[in-house]
Design goal:
Blueprint: E1 3-7, H1 12-23, E2 27-31, H2 37-44, E3 48-50, E4 64-67, H3 76-83, E5 88-90, H4 91-98, E6 103-108, H5 113-125, E7 132-139, E8 144-147, E9 154-159, E10 173-176, H6 184-187, H7 190-202, E11 207-211, E12 225-230, E13 238-246, E14 249-255, E15 260-266, H8 272-286, H9 291-300, E16 309-313, E17 318-322, H10 327-340, E18 346-350, H11 355-360, H12 362-369, E19 374-377, H13 393-399, E20 405-407, H14 410-420, E21 424-428, H15 437-445
Parallel strand pairs: 1-2, 1-4, 2-3, 4-5, 6-9, 6-10, 7-9, 10-11, 11-12, 12-13, 17-21, 18-19, 18-21, 19-20
Antiparallel strand pairs: 7-8, 13-14, 14-15, 16-17
Helix pairs in contact: 5-8, 5-9, 10-12
């Protein structure tokens, strides 16, 4: 038995590894800035967590400190470990070590990777193939971001491009869902980000899935078997046809290089999730999942918390919560909402995430937010950043070409939403906007 200390234990990726270490019978301690539903779950599972940045809270017998690069370098506990020469490793290094001698399925991309990896894990876990998984979101089927099957060699992971973390992985099968510019605070420019994705792909030993539209020439020196996928498009290797909306979900036919699978049922909203299913099914079939197992698993997939999560579903009001925090994610979200709820008024509440991302993509955010009939902006969620002069939600609001645009504090939001009489309401963002979801649900559920 060893003692592990997790700096930033409440992070979605960190908590999955903490759960794994606890399952092995180890002692697990941790620090995070705030208490959340996830950290409370970890405490129920026997982990000891402090929310005070004080070295007096640190146990004496730590074998390894695991930390996230999001921890600020002025953190007292972080500096205590540095000054006293504790053995320390990044989360990404640990994930690389845990998956080293496994058949690793790694899903990368500037967006879509959480839903795709969770979908693949759900299909494999419920088949004769089996898998373990370290996920970047809470699977509603597993009610966790971590699942284990000791009898399977497969392990599914979300491959995070932030801080070049995914370069610690050695995948057997990998996929890239998107390569949109993001995390430019880390990479400096888009070319550098592209290089990291190419390097990640080149570490893949057997099969690489690429979303149609990604420049294939970038991967021409890649030696793994390459497959393309798309929601529609006869020039992709895997694609959907005959997509029909049904009771908040979809039916579609899937064309693969081998055959057509007719009338696949996905009981999960968001037409972009049909495209995610195309890739997830393609990978599952390559791993040896049977058609019957695939059909049953896709039909029973309940999604990921905060990914097109339907909170209220009534005739007069649908309320959806989504993690979108990049312009292209908002674009896909609006397209899905328009497809699923034609001729309904769309009200979007957006909390921008990071000052640098808001600055770098202000025009793109404004363009995609115009897709809503009504837009409400909350203050920027800073996460790891200090404010940037001239960059705030009012700046972004003025760029939105929509007369029905509003700025609101969190405290005023509920009253504003009630006055707007929303038909399709969506809360959007990767910050603490999720804490408002129960309050919004309570305000509107009894109407």
């Amino acid at each position: 038995m060893k003692t592990y200390y997790f700096l930033g234990i409440g992070g979605i990726g960190m908590s999955a590894i903490a759960r794994y270490m606890k399952d092995l019978g180890n002692k697990v301690y941790g620090y995070d800035r705030i208490s959340t539903p996830l950290t409370l779950e970890l405490e129920k599972e026997g982990m000891i967590i402090t929310y005070e940045d004080e070295v007096s809270e640190i146990p004496s017998d730590i074998d390894l400190v695991i930390y996230t690069p999001a921890i600020p370098h002025n953190n007292k506990i972080y500096n205590y470990f540095i000054d006293n020469k504790f053995k320390m490793e990044k989360r990404s290094q640990i994930l690389g070590e845990l998956t080293k001698n496994k058949k690793c399925i790694a899903i990368a991309g500037s967006h879509g990777k959480t839903t795709c990896s969770t979908m693949i894990a759900h299909i494999l876990y419920n088949s004769s193939v089996g898998c373990s998984a370290f996920l970047g979101g809470i699977s509603k089927n597993f009610d966790s971001n971590y699942v284990v099957n000791k009898n399977s060699d497969y392990v599914v992971v979300e491959a995070d491009e932030y801080d070049r973390s995914f370069l610690q992985l050695d995948p057997t099968i990998s996929a890239i869902t998107a390569m949109d510019a993001d995390h430019l605070d880390v990479y400096g420019d888009y070319k550098e980000m592209q290089k990291s994705f190419i390097e990640f792909a080149n570490k893949t030993s057997e099969v690489l899935f690429l979303k149609k539209g990604i420049d294939l020439h970038l991967f021409e020196n890649n030696t793994s078997a390459k497959h393309t996928y798309a929601i529609r498009g006869v020039d992709a290797d895997y694609y959907a046809i005959n997509i029909r909306c049904s009771n908040g979900g979809y039916y579609f036919d899937l064309r693969t290089p081998e055959k057509i699978y007719y009338d696949i049922c996905l009981n999960y909203g968001g037409v972009h999730n049909v495209e995610n299913a195309v890739m997830a099914i393609g990978i599952a079939l390559i791993c040896g999942v049977s058609e019957e197992e695939m059909r049953q698993s896709i039909a029973s997939f309940s999604g990921v918390k905060r990914r097109f999560e339907v909170v209220i579903n009534r005739k007069d009001l649908v309320y959806i919560d989504d993690y979108a925090h990049h312009p292209n994610e908002i674009k896909a979200l609006v397209e899905s909402l328009r497809f699923q709820y034609p001729n309904r008024k769309l009200t979007g509440v957006f909390q921008p995430h990071l000052y640098s991302r808001t600055r770098d993509f202000a025009d793109e955010f404004a363009k995609e937010l115009n897709g809503f009939d009504e837009v409400v902006l909350l203050d920027i969620y800073p996460a790891r950043e200090e404010p940037i002069i001239g960059v705030d939600s009012i700046m972004l609001l003025h760029k939105i070409n929509n007369m029905n645009r509003y700025y609101s504090s969190k405290e005023q939001l509920l009253d504003l939403l009630e006055a707007l009489y929303p038909e399709i309401l969506v809360t959007i963002g990767a910050g603490d906007i999720s804490e408002l979801v129960p309050q919004i649900e309570k305000r509107f559920k009894d109407e």
